[in-house]
Design brief:
single chain; 363 residues; alpha/beta; D-Maltodextrin-Binding Protein, domain 2; Helix Hairpins; 3 domains; 12 helices; 10 strands; glycoprotein; transmembrane; receptor; ligand-gated monoatomic ion channel activity
Length: 363
Amino acid sequence: MQRSHFYILLILNFLFVNTISAQTINSKTDSLRVGVAGTAPFVFTERGNSAPQGISVSIWDEIATDLDWTYQYKSYKTVNLALDALKKGDLDLVVGPVTINSQRLNDFRFSQPFYQSSLAIAYKQGEFSIWNVFKLLFSFKLLLAIGIFLVILGIVGTLLWLAERKASPEQFSSKPAKGIGSGMWLAIVTMSTTGYGDKAPVTLMGRIIAGTWMVVSIISATSMIAGIASVLTFSNFQSVDIKNIEQLNGKKVATISGSPSVTFLKEYNIRIKPTETLAEAIKMLNAEQVDAIVYDRPQLMHYINTHKDDDLELATAEYYQQGYGFAFPKESNLVFQVNRTLLELSEDQQISEIIEEYLGKPK
């Protein structure tokens, strides 16, 4: 009985080994269907009839060469479209800056990350100009603050005129326009502590109103003047450096539809302007339709390095650090061999050399 169990286990082991061997042989001899999608510097697909290039493509080429695999590329406009084709069974894997996250693990298997990415903020660096000065002086916020101040001043001036017009007609005319104007002048003189003495309340009610206004103006004047000064300061005539995501509160931000940056921006309740490509987002930023772009840091870094005339800056803050990897169907038997080769390439510094070729050496 024990001998029969032994023979059964031997036969099962033989079948398992042959199945694995067959899968390995097939993976070497069959031409793999490789979907390519993403943006520069990880994927370049718009270069005439030439083969795709970029960080992801170069790393995959090294893996396939080491494993002696043959393959055919099929380009897709976005990573999401390539993943949809992979899910339908039209592809054997997807090569590109595919973000590895828990949601995608429900439908795909991933290689180990070949690059650690993060989200970053790109913004337009402004320059001093007379036009920027005029825009600032006539900005909506400043005009609104001045308007509110004039309304309050008018209310105080009216109250002073109503209290003083009968007891002091020589100071406060019985004519409403002239009398309220005198009351506003008294309010301004009182608030600024100038004290010309040409106008002064003589009634009890007038003095109560003037005294109350003194206390209120002392409390509010400092903060109001500080606010106006901060608006009119020379540094604000230029573009303010964006250092973190909190500075984008209330501003319009462009990002790529379907990317992890959409979820990230929603967490901060930021107004999103979705686009299909990074080029569209850059175009919106240059046209001042948005205040910044939030997207994957290496893609933004590559664009800024290759388009210095656009005067774009990249904030130092990094968010949502996630890895890029290759995507496979859940039942794929290629992942183990790809991971092992990735480790070998990493140990030999080949992956670092490929990344430096496109992004330069890290500062």
